[in-house]
Design goal:
The chain is an alpha+beta fold. Helix content is about 35%, strand content about 15%. The strands form two sheets. The protein has a three-stranded mixed β-sheet. A hairpin with a 7-residue loop joins strand 2 and strand 3. The relative contact order is 0.09.
Length: about 200
């Protein structure tokens, strides 16, 4: 968090803490509620995000704001965050272009990754993939480009090299194991060799 604060402060952002007890607003998850002693039968809600407050800050003249904001959401667990509470870097920039926002975020991520990780980080600017291209080639707006898992729209094209398919099939004897090895999204895009032709027809 110190590195986040140092970088954003150097870019002219103000760190502003927003209230923790708020009125309930319709968002993507259920609220956690806190009973009000002064108003029996009424409740405060813990914020799912400081959305309303940061918009008020923008229209009141704070052109660059950030907050390492605690968020409380009563929802099912996800792979990338805890199911109850988590922290996010919440920030707003007034009168900015898309490229300006991306440039600030790219440098922030680059600084964090190069400071606290030994992994090789791609040089700036990061590769940008248009939404339509990402959905067409990967089927996701956040593709994992470490793996060339692009869709093929050519009839008869072999997405996976034959030797790769045979190598992956050797340890698997049961059809159920194939479903564990490959996701449902990947299976229809595998145009495979003769050994798997029958299974491909079932799919």
């Amino acid at each position: 968090t110190m590195e986040v604060r140092r970088y954003l402060d150097s870019k002219g952002f103000l760190e502003i803490e927003t209230p923790m007890l708020v009125g309930s607003t319709p968002e993507g998850a259920r609220d956690f509620v806190v009973p009000s002693r002064m108003n029996p039968g009424q409740f405060y809600a813990l914020p799912q995000s400081p959305q309303q407050f940061k918009q008020l800050l923008m229209v009141s003249g704070f052109s660059r704001y950030f907050q390492i904001a605690p968020c409380f959401r009563d929802e099912d667990a996800r792979a990338d965050r805890s199911p109850v509470d988590f922290y996010q870097v919440d920030m707003e920039m007034s009168f900015s272009t898309q490229d300006e926002v991306l440039e600030v975020m790219e440098k922030l991520l680059y600084n964090i990754l190069t400071t606290f990780s030994d992994y090789k980080v791609d040089p700036l600017p990061f590769v940008r993939i248009p939404f339509n291209t990402a959905m067409k080639e990967y089927g996701s707006d956040k593709p994992d480009t470490r793996f060339e898992m692009k869709f093929s729209y050519e009839v008869g094209a072999q997405v996976f090299p034959q030797e790769e398919i045979l190598k992956n099939l050797k340890p698997y004897d049961k059809q159920s194991d194939l479903y564990k090895k490959y996701t449902v999204q990947e299976l229809p895009h595998m145009l495979v060799n003769k050994q798997m032709k029958a299974l491909a027809q079932k799919i």
